[in-house]
Design goal:
Number of helices of chain B: 13
Largest interface: A-B, 35 and 35 residues
Shape of chain A: globular
Distance between the termini of chain B: 33 Å
Strand content of chain A: 35-45%
Strand order of the largest sheet of chain B: 3-5-8-10-13-16-18-20
Radius of gyration of chain A: 21 Å
Chains: A alpha/beta, B alpha/beta, C alpha/beta
Radius of gyration of chain B: 22 Å
Order of helices and strands of chain A: HHHHEEEEHHHEEEEEEEEEEEEEEEEHHH
Number of strands of chain B: 20
Number of domains of chain A: 2
Oligomer: heterotrimer
Structural class of chain A: alpha/beta
Chain lengths: ~425, ~475, ~250
């Protein structure tokens, strides 16, 4: 499917325009709908409220190809470093393609597989769920994802399962990803009464340029509890777009802890829908943007039913000529009485060239609610820097320490010590002081 | 979003019917808008040709624009050809007696303690010289003239002070700014001009209250206040009941210019007709208000209490150009019935050490919908800019809505911006506590709401703070319980 | 002053009070003790007319009238005062303004003139000093940002100003250190008079060392299972509640 064309924008248009019609694969009906949707929407642009601050010109001008040939990677040994942590199950994707030989799952009640396999088997359960939360796509990239999806994870955790160790979703990119547009969709179902921990990691072995466009649908059934630790450490040249769609049933509890550190351009949107009462959603996020980086977090927490709680806490560190965009929408619908929602966003601006555009939003249509949000944009406290210097630290050290302190409010939320240490180390290296 | 035509006529046209069908006198223009209408307005106001040219440029630009649809308010689209763009006070529909006035309106006036004659004047019943606006204005004009302050109608200013008008009018809100500003620049009927020269502290609070009759002339008012170096002025607009008006569309423009060390305080108490209980009628209030802190250490403060209008769309803003300049926005917006308000402010930090404060209190009752929409922008050059924003929403009843949309854009690393927002209702605990201490439920609610709005009321001149509190109580009557 | 006959009440459909009989005469101080969840606070809130408490049977007669038919504020105007366990914060509502509005509402209901500003100020200052309430707190919003002890003192100040006929103190001792407790108790004792009755609701005997009750009632499981003199409180302190519960069950 190699095509020699000028820009990614054109590639996509051509590719989608030429989707196999009729009796294509098992997803073809959805693919067609999504292609139609994409044709209607086109790529997002600054006139759209949710894309006001997130430019995509750089992305569209890249020369990405839609190429799903299996990757060749000689770095098996290098990969090993990511496979050491004991887990209940692990799914490994290299350059967007599922690696059965590196993936495994021994835990009772957990079944894992790839979306590609589900396509081949025409798994009707998977088909039924696919797109049921995300729709065919609320923006061009999401529609494009569904129209052209190649692979992804399918994880099912049976009812009343208690998992001691996390399930890990590992995405590794290698040199082979250079110039590619990767498209994956993950489908994760946590059945009633189950308590699970999901780790989702994006790491790069090389500094390659690629576009990783993912959509993840998470179903958390009645009384289930999921902790989701998600770390985006893509290559510094990469583009990363992910849409997370959550559905929480009665008494369900979701805790998402996110870090978006890598990629030249990244956007993570989280859509949470409470579909029944007494559910609880907690989101913690950390983002960093350095020279030439744009990091964007979009939250859409929809209190559609009464008696649900949500809490969102996002922190950003901006340095170099980094740019951060934060948009946190909390909606409380008419019937959603007794909703509690609290969002906080804090931004630390360390450099003259950095930029922050932040927009928390409250849309409240019920009266018996407790909702609040707060945003700050500021710098390190000079008093604190002075204090540390007076205790013998260099200014650089002092600033680094204070930045880490600022970020640690989120880092400490990660349950995995390995992730905590890794993130702390990455941030320590990134902060120039 | 449009309504069927018949209904549309009902909403927009009806109230004008009596005024226009019969007996069109020389100074009332028939509904409709084209270049001839604009020429006619300009001619009737005896304007110089440069002013007409400005109007025409604005009109031609307006034709190329589209009505904005980004705010959270919903209303039937406006038929701009159904509106009359020039109508003198005499041509307002005249009623013979108070019996013909909406009794709801009268009881509101009574509760506000407005005497019967004033009520007549406000409701548009012919009444002889209750407000001798000419003599009132003349008296104060003398005092003001001694201080060197110019305070006159915009029409007069265009004739008498063309140089000042040429220099400042449209310098803060250019006609290209937005749809309604362009329309206003083309057709504005009248308004107020204030000029405070260097070093002068205006000896009294200035208010449209003194010029009540003139203020009623326009759906499209134009206000310009210029405060020269080291001068100070406080201006009050609207002031409770006097601003009752039956016009459907209001698209006013207010421009403030503060030069070095100047200080302008602009207070509004807006109580336009909100429509009836079913949400029919009522004013569409689309206002562009902007202050330019042009000089170093200049200071512009907006305070508003918005209880009226069916639809309010206004964002009194400050461009903080001068070093150490200060912008403030204090707002109470109440919506009940079917009222909708989309209001807030923009603080554009350009100058070093510029500071801004935003305090917004939204109260939504019944089916009212209230949105705060604000922008705090810190430009790359604005060293040490500071902003603090507090937006609180109070909900009364389960059919109402409160939204908060703050936009924060920071391009300077020395900026400190803080935004906080809360949404809550008058809690049962608070009500019980007050009632347990002997207060009636109504008094308890009113006390809690006044407490909620206190920070904003504190910014109003004393006598208006009292009126604003009363107005709030009246506005929310029947909304609680 | 107050007669409660066979009062039953429920909250959210759950029966909390299962037949309370209690008579309080003018000038008397009654203590109601009992373990957590026994219905003490429910009784206090029913006396002051809080929504959400459903009286399912029985009657309450206060100064000759049927109390249950009266609105909360009418009860307050008739002289019932509830010092709350968790006093409510009223942001932006000035403490003194609130107190004055309350006083005047009560005075108006009795056909009395409103209090003039000067005598009001004099009284507030004097009484605030008696309950050792920092005068600065008078200028702040009602209870907003007050410490636990300050809130309780503020309650007693309100009580002193409003001069009720029947004062109900709901767990006024909770969260207070010994000095604060003594101050609050002194404030209460100053208000004891032959025309004024008090109902002191408490979990611990501690408060009763400072406010000496005429009668002590033990409320367990929605019923008064024992009444006696102040010595009953001491016995409870020494032996806890369980023996009484067992005895009642036997």
């Amino acid at each position: 499917m190699n095509q020699q064309v000028e820009s990614y924008g054109q590639v996509v248009k051509q590719y989608i325009g030429n989707l196999p019609k009729g009796d294509g694969d098992w997803l073809s009906e959805l693919r067609q709908k999504a292609a139609k949707r994409f044709a209607g929407l086109g790529f997002p642009h600054a006139k759209l409220e949710t894309w006001k601050y997130t430019g995509i010109d750089g992305l569209l001008s890249q020369e990405f190809e839609v190429d799903d040939t299996s990757p060749e990677y000689a770095e098996h040994t290098v990969l090993q470093q990511f496979l050491q942590e004991p887990v209940s199950g692990r799914l490994v994707f290299v350059d967007g393609v599922y690696q059965a030989d590196l993936s495994h799952c021994e835990s009772a009640g957990v079944s894992i597989g790839s979306l590609h396999a589900a396509m081949v088997l025409a798994d009707s359960t998977v088909l039924k769920k696919t797109g049921s939360l995300s729709g065919v796509g609320e923006h061009g990239f999401a529609a494009m994802n569904l129209a052209t999806v190649h692979d992804g994870a399918v994880i099912h955790i049976a009812a009343d399962t208690e998992l001691k160790r996390p399930i890990e979703l590992l995405h590794v990119t290698t040199r082979g990803a250079e110039g590619k547009a990767l498209r994956s969709r993950h489908l994760i179902v946590v059945e009633a009464g189950t308590s699970a921990n999901l780790v989702e990691r994006y790491v790069a072995l090389d500094d390659t340029t690629y576009f990783n466009n993912t959509v993840c649908e998470l179903f958390i059934e009645e009384g289930a509890k999921l902790t989701h630790q998600r770390v985006q450490l893509e290559s510094t040249q990469a583009y990363h777009m992910s849409d997370l769609h959550l559905e929480l049933k009665a008494n369900a509890h979701y805790h998402g802890i996110y870090a978006a550190i890598g990629a030249a351009w990244s956007r993570t949107s989280v859509h949470n829908r409470f579909s029944d009462q007494n559910a609880n959603c907690e989101l913690d996020g950390l983002y960093m943007a350095d020279n030439g980086q744009l990091t964007d977090f979009h939250l859409d927490v929809d209190h559609a039913v009464p008696h649900c709680d949500s809490r969102e806490n996002f922190r950003g560190v901006l340095h170099g000529a980094g740019k951060a965009v934060f948009d946190g929408l909390i909606q409380v619908r008419e019937q959603a009485q007794k909703s509690n929602a609290n969002l906080h966003n804090a931004n630390l601006v360390l450099s003259r060239r950095a930029e922050v555009d932040t927009k928390p939003q409250l849309v409240i249509l019920a009266d018996d609610v407790q909702c609040s949000h707060g945003t700050t944009v500021g710098q390190l406290d000079p008093e604190a820097v002075y204090y540390l210097r007076s205790r013998g630290l260099s200014e650089r050290e002092a600033r680094r320490l204070l930045c880490l302190g600022f970020a640690s409010e989120i880092i400490d939320r990660f349950e995995s010590e390995t992730l905590r240490l890794q993130l702390t180390e990455v941030i320590r290296q990134r902060i120039q002081g | 979003m449009g309504l069927p035509n018949a209904e549309m006529d009902d909403v927009v046209g009806k109230e004008y019917a009596q005024g226009f069908v019969t007996d069109i006198e020389s100074d009332t223009l028939p509904p409709g808008l084209d270049e001839d209408v604009i020429r006619a307005i300009s001619e009737r106001k005896c304007e110089p040709s440069w002013m007409l040219e400005r109007r025409l440029s604005a009109y031609r630009h307006w034709l190329t624009m589209q009505e904005p649809n980004w705010s959270s308010v919903k209303h039937p689209s406006i038929d701009f050809q159904a509106i009359s763009y020039y109508s003198s006070p005499k041509q307002r529909p005249e009623l013979d007696s108070l019996d013909q006035v909406d009794p709801e309106l009268l009881s509101t006036y009574e509760k506000l303690g407005i005497p019967i004659d004033e009520q007549k004047a406000l409701a548009g019943v012919a009444v002889d010289a209750v407000f001798d606006s000419v003599s009132v204005a003349t008296t104060f004009r003398h005092t003001l003239a001694e201080a060197g302050v110019i305070f006159c109608s915009m029409s007069e200013a265009i004739r008498e002070y063309p140089e000042l008008i040429k220099q400042y009018l449209g310098s803060v809100v250019p006609y290209k700014d937005n749809y309604f500003a362009a329309l206003n620049s083309a057709v504005f009927s009248d308004g107020t001009f204030v000029f405070v020269p260097k070093g002068v502290t205006c000896p009294m609070e200035l208010s449209t209250y003194f010029r009540i009759n003139e203020a009623k002339t326009g759906q499209f008012e134009r206000t310009l206040i210029v405060a020269e170096e080291r001068s100070q002025v406080s201006y009050l607009e609207g002031c409770t009941a006097p601003m009752r008006d039956e016009n459907q569309l209001h698209a006013a423009v207010v421009e403030l210019v503060a030069l070095e060390d100047a200080r302008i305080k602009y207070s509004t108490v807006q109580n336009w007709y909100p429509g009836d209980a079913k949400g029919r009628g009522g004013i569409y209030n689309f206002v562009t208000k902007r202050g330019d802190c042009r000089g170093d250490r200049s200071h512009i403060s907006w305070t508003q209490v918005e209880t009226g209008s069916a639809v309010t769309w206004k964002y009194p803003s400050c461009i903080l150009r001068g070093r150490d300049s200060v912008g403030e926005f204090y707002s109470v917006a109440v919506t009940k019935g079917h009222q909708q308000a989309d209001t807030g402010t923009k603080m554009i930090h350009i100058g070093e050490n510029s500071r801004s404060t935003i305090v917004s209190k939204g109260i939504s009752a019944m089916r009212g919908s209230n949105a705060y929409r604000g922008l705090v922008r810190v430009a790359a050059k604005a060293e040490n800019a500071r902003n603090h924003t507090q937006c609180d929403s109070l909900l009364i009843g389960d059919r109402c809505a409160a939204h908060t949309f703050p936009y924060i854009e920071v391009k300077n690393p020395t900026a400190q911006v803080e935004h906080e927002a809360t949404t809550s209702k008058v809690s049962d605990d608070q009500l019980f506590y007050c009632r347990q201490r002997g207060l009636s439920e109504e008094d308890a609610v009113s006390m809690i709401i006044n407490g909620f709005c206190k920070e904003v009321f504190n910014e109003l001149p004393m006598e208006f703070a009292v009126e604003a509190q009363k107005l709030l109580a009246v506005s929310l009557e029947g909304a609680v319980g | 002053m107050l007669t409660i006959k066979n009062l039953t009440a429920s909250v959210d459909g759950k029966e909390i009070l299962k037949g309370i009989d209690l008579t309080v005469r003018a000038g008397e101080v009654h203590a109601i003790m009992g373990p957590n969840g026994s219905g003490k606070s429910t009784l206090a809130h029913i006396l002051s007319g809080r929504d959400g408490y459903e009286v399912t049977g029985g009657e309450i007669v206060y100064k000759g009238q049927d109390l249950l038919s009266l609105e909360t504020e009418v009860r307050a105007q008739a002289g019932i005062f509830l010092a709350m366990q968790y006093p409510v914060e009223l942001p932006g509502v000035n403490n003194m303004t609130f107190l004055r509005e309350s006083m005047n509402a009560i005075r108006r209901s009795r056909g009395e003139d409103e209090i003039d500003a000067v005598s009001f100020m004099k009284q507030v200052r004097k009484k605030a000093a008696q309950v050792k309430l920092d005068p600065k707190l008078l200028k702040r919003s009602v209870n907003a940002g007050f410490s636990g002890g300050e809130k309780k003192r503020n309650e007693i100040l309100q009580m002193a100003m409003l001069e009720p006929y029947l004062a109900i103190l709901d767990e006024t001792d909770s969260g207070l250190d010994i000095d604060a407790l003594r101050t609050v108790a002194d404030g209460v004792n100053l208000l004891r008079s032959p025309e004024r009755s008090m109902i002191v609701v408490t979990h611990y005997q501690r408060l009763l060392e400072y406010i000496e009750p005429d009668r002590v009632h033990v409320l367990v499981g929605g019923r008064i299972i024992r009444s006696g003199g102040k010595e009953l409180a001491l016995e409870l302190e020494a032996r806890g509640y369980s023996w009484l519960v067992e005895e009642a069950a036997a």
